[in-house]
Amino acid sequence: MAKSEMNKILVTGATGQIGSELTIALREKYGNNNVVAAGHRRKPSEKLLSTGPYETIDVRDRESIEKVVREYGIDTIYHMAAILSATGEEKPLLCWDVNINGLYNILEIAREHNLRVFHPSSIAVFGPETPKENTPQDTILKPRTMYGITKVAGELLGEYYVRKFNVDVRGIRYPGIISSETLPGGGTTDFAVEIFYEAIKNKRYTCFVREDTVLPMTYMPDCIKGTIQLMEADFSKLKHHTDFNLTAMSFSAKELADEIKKHIPDFVCEYKPDFRQKIADSWPKSIDDSAAREEWGWKPDYDLEKMVKDMIEKLQKKHEAGLI
Ligand code: AKB
Fold it and tell me: Which of 24, 107, 118, 131 has fewest C-beta within 10 Å?
């Protein structure tokens, strides 16, 4: 499909951490009425409701998706609805149901209606046997979490639809995403967002991973930029489709706390690892994203220092306004 024809977008998981900001960015780019936000359980924000159409969709219910696709003449789906790693370990069957059956419904609808699909993958596709430093694009995928298993299966299923049915499916292996608009929920990298809210509100945070836990991360403006950039890339030039490695920075929990302390000197961070430590330990510390750089021009703008400064400025304003 030519770029100019892409103008009716559906975002599932639009009330989530990434979906909420992606929807607004897509509305700004393609026009408010051309981007339908769809949520399920979380309450949509005022901003989401006031800037364009909103629908309730359970991605496990194919009819509920198809109805919206027909009603709005959708041609592109950003399928952001998912159960993340930590919730996935607590509710593995729900994780399989939402992540796999939900994706299957989206792909089948895409095949029948000739739609384009963005489906996020994650660093959770990697496991303990994967090289941890500068993790290659094409490497061992033996995750130990149900979330990781659904993401590997999702990458493969998406690629199957590309090859077998000629469906345009693309995806990025998101690292931890740090953002100031909507709190994440149920992920292992959530500590890297929560720490900011607690530092600003209470000057204290109890972190659920050890201080030496290093993970790859990206700031939301880069995440949004990269996602839209991949979807605008020339499909025929892509060698990979559904599984692009992507990163902007890597740091330990302590390095993050120390950077925050530069802005909030009396901030105190304690470390009390829980079950999420094991998940974090099975993931890479740093990522080789050269395929994304070469195939569609990925280049992040934010490093640790710049991201922390921006996060603190944004959240401090929200705090002063009584919003957090
Ligand atoms: C999680 O922690 O589960 C997610 C992810 C890295 O996919 N943020």
Answer: 131
143 CB less than 6 Å from ligand 1? no
Mean pLDDT in residue range 53-79: 97
Q: Write the secondary structure of the chain as one string of H (helix), E (strand) and C (coil).
A: CCHHHCCCEEEECCCCHHHHHHHHHHHHHHCHHHEEEEECCCCCCHHHHHCCCEEECCCCCHHHHHHHHHHHCCCEEEECCCCCHHHHHHCHHHHHHHHHHHHHHHHHHHHHHCCEEECCEEHHHCCCCCCCCCECCCCCCCCCCHHHHHHHHHHHHHHHHHHHHCCCEECEEECEEECCCCCCCCCCCCHHHHHHHHHHHHCEEEECCCCCCEEEEEEHHHHHHHHHHHHHCCHHHCCCCCCEECCCEEEEHHHHHHHHHCCCCCCEEEECCCCHHHHHHCCCCCECCHHHHHHHCCCCCCCHHHHHHHHHHHHHHHHHCCCC
Probe residue for ligand 1, chosen from 190, 193, 217, 250 as the CB with the greatest number of ligand atoms within 8 Å? 190
pLDDT at 3: 45
CATH number for the domain running over 178-217+249-284+301-320? 3.90.25.10
Query: Model-level pTM greater than 0.90?
Result: yes
What is the CATH topology of the domain spanning 9-176+218-245?
A: Rossmann fold (3.40.50)
Model pLDDT for residues 165-220, shown as the tens digit of each residue: 999 999 999 999 999 999 999 999 999 999 999 999 999 999 999 999 999 999 99
Q: Where are the domains of the chain?
A: 9-176+218-245, 178-217+249-284+301-320
